[in-house]
Prior knowledge:
15 strands, 2 domains, 31% helix, Rossmann fold, 9 helices, 284 residues, 5-stranded parallel beta sheet, 6-stranded parallel beta sheet, globular, alpha/beta
Amino acid sequence: MTTLRFVERLADLVDGIDVVLSDIWGVVHNGLESFPEACEALHTFRSRGGTVIMITNAPRPADSVQRQLRKLGVADDTYDAIVSSGDLTRHYVAGHPGRKVFWLGPERDSSIHRGLDLTLGPIEQADYIICTGLFDDETETAEDYRGMMLQARERQLTLICANPDIVVERGDRLIYCAGAIAELYRELGGEVIFYGKPHRPIYDRAMELAAERRGRAMPLNRVLAIGDSVRTDLAGAHGFGIDCLFVTRGIHAEEFAGVDQLDPASVKELFGHPPRALIRELKW
Length: 284
């Protein structure tokens, strides 16, 4: 293993790359504002013939994600398509019609079940759980749900996790996501089905969309993932067999403050499987 260094620009890495699979939250925005240089980098890659598929653990359909991006000033021509964990969760629900579901998450995620054949009900009557997040992610942690998860385990309910992220940025703070509750439930012995990174289905779907736009299936050595999470973005890319450009300004920012390069021992400790390169923030 060699020393891992920072690159200054996306342009330094995209020779021979046709498709970029880019994370959204932490790469192109922080939940409150977009990062203009990151958006410009992806737009420039597209203008030079590349394809950009946004892959996100947002527990909402792609059209809802797009509306959020527009509100934050991320132009539609920054990317070719969006694949969300919300869409994959909706596919599961559509395949299990007529069930009673306990939905655990904030009201802003209600589009997860829009137009689907299900009935929302209390946990005591539910056939399974859809978790899109915490009811109040400003004040709560997963531990606030331990009692609820013990009750779900007693009923042997499957929990469908529509966002495997543990935390994401919101401005300059980190807030808990559905993945935190899902991991607690799994530790308690409950059954969890995860949709989103680092799990393979979201990458399979992203590559299907890339193939549609390019007119052929793309070899994995011509694909680059971009993300800011070791647990989801880096692990997912490695598991799928593609290189990853790791953005350090996101949820791991404190670990990389003042670091210019990483020796092999530090790379192994931080990453396990190293990314192709590090970049502080995405720019062309």
